[in-house]
Every structure is written in structure tokens, then in C-alpha cells.
Amino acid sequence: MAKKIAFIILIIATVLWTAFIFSNSLDNAEESTEKSSTVTEAVNKVASAVGIEEEISHSTVRDMAHFTEFALLALLLAVDIVILIYSKLSSSPFKLLAICASSLPACFILACVDELIQKFSGGRVSQFSDVLLDTLGALCGVIGFSVIYIIFYAIKSKKAQIEITH
Fold first, then answer.
1. What is the pLDDT of residue 89?
2. Range of the domain at 145
3. Up-side HSE of residue 31: CA atoms within 13 Å toward CB?
4. Scanning 8, 65, 131, 159, which has its CA 20 to 30 A from the CA of 25?
5. How many domains does the chain have?
6. Main-chain dihedrals φ then ψ at residue 122, nearest 5 degrees
7. What residues in the chain have per-residue pLDDT under 50?
8. How far apart are CA 151 and CA 155, in angstroms?
9. For residues 25 and 121, is the Cβ–Cβ distance under 8 A?
10. According to the model, what pLDDT value does residue 90 have?
């Protein structure tokens, strides 16, 4: 029962995150620039507070946003997949991780849809370079999830070995 509840919560989080990404693309050029300028100012304040003197550009912050949005989306999708099929797989974590990679084509398609939405938002443009940046973020999200999963799997296996020998 707890597994079903966790899965439902994660699916809702994934849908809400996707809606957040798409809602940003629905903003017209003026609204988008205003939002990203606010974020750029905040990023530069934080950077200055931690001793980074060089100002981070508006375009760099926008690129970081694309990358981060899709890294988190891929992470959420990978976790959804793990919860959905975990009990149906053998104990090999590598089979599971290979299946988690299926979140990458989904993220690529969602990135294409995201750019298509922007094409029809007032004053915005659609760029394939953004799709590639989004997909790279998704790849990093899946790799990050995989590393964390393998570490936890190794710890769990090590604990099981210690319990068996004692």
C-alpha cells in the first residue's frame, strides 16, 4: 500500500513538474524575460555572496534553467519507472538502470513539445539547440539517478552479506 501511495505521489510530482516546464514555455517573450531576469539577479546575488565576482549572464542562467528542468524531469521519470517495475525484475540493478534510460526518449519528446509550445507563444522562438540542452540535462539526471541507485544497491547488498555471515 505504501508503495502505491509513493508511486501516485511521484506520478503527480512528475506531471506537475512537466506542467511547470510547459507553463514557462507558454509565457510570452516579455513575461519570460521578466521571470528569467529576476532569476538572473537572484543567481548573481547568491554568486556574489559566495565570493564569485564575475557576473553570470542572462543567457547562461536560461541555459542552466533548461538543463536543470529536464535533469529533474528525467530523475522523476526514472524513479517512477523503478517503482513501477522494481518487483518485476531480477535482482540485477543494471537491468533496472537500462530500463530507466527509457526516460531519455520521453524527455527528448517532451523537450520537442516544449519548444513547439514556445513557437506559438508571443514573441518566442523555438530552437533545436534548446532541445539538445534539455536532453543533455535529462541524460545527466539519469546518470545522477543511476549513480545514487548503484551506491544504495551496493550498500544494501553489503549489509545483506554481513547479515548472512553473522
1. 56
2. 2-165
3. 10
4. 8
5. 1
6. -45, 120
7. none
8. 6
9. yes
10. 56
